[in-house]
Amino acid sequence: MRKLKVTELNRMSVAEYKASEKQPIVVVLDHVRSLYNVGSIFRTCDAFRMNGVCLCGITAQPPNPEIHKTALGAEDSVPWLYFKKTEDAVNWLKENGYTILAIEQCEGSTMLYNFHRDSNKKYAIILGNEVKGVQQQVVDMCDGCLEIPQYGIKHSMNVSVTAGIVLWHLLEK
Prior knowledge:
The protein is of the alpha/beta class. The chain is built from 7 helices and 7 strands, in the order αβαβααβαβββαβα. Helix 2 packs parallel to helix 3 (65-71) and helix 2 packs parallel to helix 7 (159-172).
């Protein structure tokens, strides 16, 4: 088995990426404080061709060298918007026909393995702050909550890891 060279990966240009068809999924970052997490999420959204990212509250915005360090240019290919309040992002997404799902541990949340994406719907997934998670007032605005089952003692995961798991699941289903 031989690893492929970068030149063999047939990567798109930024212009080709921007013109390509995207998954009908937007990622919302609710007060994510680590710029490395933000960059990593941009890179994951690029890899899976997500429709965009909404950066909310204290979440940093490009251009930023710390975001770029993990995004590796994905902050230039993935469309993004900034909202001072996450609630404003949720309202904008609802007005644009998105089903809103918080990724959070809540009463009545749906385990990720039980969630099946409706191919006729557009989705926005909300990922929360590294310490406090998704704000309760934002959870209250959501159409549902998805939870990643966890079996250890911590019952929390890094937000960029969570993004990767959830987005992969949504694409596979």
